[in-house]
UniProtKB/TrEMBL annotation:
Region annotation Disordered: where it falls in the sequence: 54-79
Domain of life: Bacteria
Name of encoding gene: accB
Function: This protein is a component of the acetyl coenzyme A carboxylase complex; first, biotin carboxylase catalyzes the carboxylation of the carrier protein and then the transcarboxylase transfers the carboxyl group to form malonyl-CoA.
Source species of the chain: Kaistella gelatinilytica
Entry-linked CDD domains: biotinyl_domain
Presence of the UniProt keyword Lipid biosynthesis in the record: yes
Domain Lipoyl-binding as annotated: residue spans: 86-162
Entry-linked SUPFAM superfamilies: Single hybrid motif
Pfam families: Biotin_lipoyl
Name the UniProt record assigns to this protein: Biotin carboxyl carrier protein of acetyl-CoA carboxylase
UniProtKB keywords: Biotin, Fatty acid biosynthesis, Fatty acid metabolism, Lipid biosynthesis, Lipid metabolism
NCBIfam families hit by this protein: BCCP (TIGR00531), PRK07051.1 (NF005457)
Pathway where it operates: Lipid metabolism; fatty acid biosynthesis
Length: 164
């Protein structure tokens, strides 16, 4: 089964309004879980990072609940109590969030680091494929919203960036 077949299967499962499907052959097995059956999800071979300011979100769109505690490696220079001025970098896929390219390497970004467009901010592993997630905004990381090596959902907020 190639990546196109897997993507088509994922789209079919999300349109079928089911929460989980298992597919197994003699040398291949896949389990697809959707957060809410029936929601359309887009998966791309080269994942993009979706971000939006909270005041620009459409009405009727509920942000997914935050499942893990925030990571506080270094104290933030800015006051992060007013999140409305920050831009959110969100997960483009379901997978496992990693802050490092490998266990023996340094993290991609820390709180207070400057990021520019195209800079890798994390890696998300999905089905043994490690997808580098790049920033689509320039600014300073003010908050890391997910712990290292934890599962993330599609469209889950990962980082808060101060674009000023």
């Amino acid at each position: 089964m190639d990546i196109k077949d897997i993507q088509n299967l994922i789209k079919f499962v999300s349109k079928a309004e089911v929460s989980e499907v298992k597919y197994k052959t003699k040398d291949f097995e896949i389990t697809i879980k959707t957060p809410l059956g029936g929601n359309e999800m887009t998966y791309m071979q080269q994942p993009a990072v979706y971000h939006s300011a909270p005041q620009q979100q459409q009405q009727g769109f509920a942000s997914p609940a935050q499942a893990s505690a925030p990571v506080a490696d270094t104290p933030a220079a800015a006051d992060v109590s007013d999140d409305s001025k920050f831009v959110t970098i969100k997960s483009p896929m379901i997978g496992t969030f990693y802050r490092k390219p490998s266990p023996d390497k340094d993290v991609f970004v820390n709180v207070g680091d400057e990021v520019s467009m195209g800079k890798v901010v994390c890696v998300i592993e999905a089905m043994k494929l490690f997808n580098q997630i790049e920033s689509e905004i320039s600014g300073k990381i003010v908050k890391i919203l997910v712990d290292d090596m934890t599962p993330v959902e599609y469209d889950q907020p990962l980082f808060l960036v101060d674009p000023s």
